[in-house]
Amino acid sequence: MVVLPAFLRRELRWHLDWYAEKGPDGLLFVGEKGAPFRRTTFGRTWRRARAAVGLPDGFRFYDLRHTGHTLSTRSGATLKDTMVRAGQSSEKAALIYRHSDEERQREVAVGLDDLVRAERAKHHREQPEERAES
Fold first, then answer.
1. Exposed site from 33, 44, 45, 117, fewest CB < 10 Å?
2. What's the rounded Cα separation, in Å, for the pair 30 and 19?
3. Which InterPro entries does the annotation name (predicted)?
4. Measured CA distances, 10 to 1, 14, 15, 64 (Å)
């Protein structure tokens, strides 16, 4: 079982109510004529959706998997967490989808800076006492 974030639960409920076929065996994504999506139909639909939300032309539907892994990691998920969420059985497969961008590298640098500054401040507070004893 994968627990969805609250914003996604609302979006998924809306999609199920408005677009999906009803019932436990209903299609989640229905093509233009009520049948399963065909590759060409999906391509047109994806291009319109991608443009509507401002994604670049080269962004593929499959890239959402990479995005999901990366965002999960940035939220604090462990490698095992991301494997469970994506239904992957190997660490190698999971690592393919995890990415680090410049923004994340800046966050890591800030985190490291905070750790070092805290240790230095702690050490600095201890130094006067140590000096007084010698």
1. 33
2. 7
3. DNA_brk_join_enz, Integrase-like_cat_sf, Integrase_catalytic
4. 18, 6, 9, 19
For residue 1, give both structure tokens. 């079982």
Sequential DSSP letters for the chain: --PPPHHHHHHHHHHHHHTSPSSTT--SSB-TTSSBPPHHHHHHHHHHHHHHHT--TT--TTHHHHHHHHHHHHTT--HHHHHHHHT---HHHHHHH----HHHHHHHHHHHHHHHHHHHHHHHHHHHHHHHH-
Domain range summary for the chain, segments of one domain joined by +: 62-99, 100-134
